[in-house]
Amino acid sequence: MLIDTHSHIYTEEFLDDIDEVIQRAYENEVRKIVLPNIDSSTVRKMLDLSEQYPHICYPLMGLHPTSVNEDYEDELQLVEFWLQKQKFYGIGEVGIDLYWDKTFVTEQIDAFRRQIRMAIKYDLPLVIHFRESFNEVMQVLKEEQVPGLRGVFHSFSGSLEQAQQVIDLGFKLGVNGVVTFKNSGMDKVIENIDPCHLILETDAPYLTPVPFRGKRNESSYLIYVAQRVADLHRMSVTELAKLSTRNAEHLFQI
């Protein structure tokens, strides 16, 4: 069994064939799918899918850094509202993104800090987005660190040294289709990290693995990520699946 620990299959890209997408995932041994939220515009779609497939889809609640703007205070209030209203399995997707736009970097840092505190308050794992912002994210995490704070650095694309910093903090590394890209360099990093620190993800509809790169990603393609990581560690995909699934089940309590 595999768990896709990061998938946005509730978005409009899957409007016409979501049932088939879920079916293909199931046929490829992907039996659980974690759904990180983006912002107030995606909550209802995410929850509808989770209610439709309650034993497959597990929702998270959070405000994505690229959705942080002048009304982020209202967005954070909505995150807190939902956390009080029903069960979620993590706080995400949260963090800092300095790639697309640095206009609201101060607000991004504040939103991240406050959502870390929500993770502590509700005893939930963090799913962290850190595009071009590893040092900034680590700084905030260290300032807010308390015993029990845990989570995953989603779509990990850093160096071996950075990976060790994440592991030392007690967090997991999220590995997706990037590890299958020929020139990404992630294979050299991942092969030197004990699989006990890894969880697998797709980030669907983005970052589609080889051999489907360039097409819409979906949870069924997680098998290609699993196979690549297994090959790097010279183990069977069954062994790797057991390890990564145990890691994911423990982190998200699913």
UniProtKB/TrEMBL annotation:
Cleaved signal peptide residues: none
Q: Which Pfam families match?
A: TatD_DNase
Residues binding a divalent metal cation 1 are 6, 8, 93, 203
Keyword set for this entry?
Hydrolase, Metal-binding
In terms of SUPFAM superfamilies, this protein maps to: Metallo-dependent hydrolases
What positions does the entry give for a divalent metal cation 2 binding?
129, 154
Metal-binding is among the record's keywords: yes
Glycoprotein found in the keyword field: no
Any one GO CC term of this protein is: cytosol
The protein's GO terms of the molecular function aspect are:
DNA nuclease activity; hydrolase activity, acting on ester bonds; metal ion binding
Which NCBIfam families does the UniProt record give? YchF/TatD family DNA exonuclease
Q: What is stated as this protein's family in its record?
A: Belongs to the metallo-dependent hydrolases superfamily. TatD-type hydrolase family.
Q: What is this protein called?
A: TatD DNase family protein
Q: Look up and give the organism this protein is from.
A: Mangrovibacterium marinum
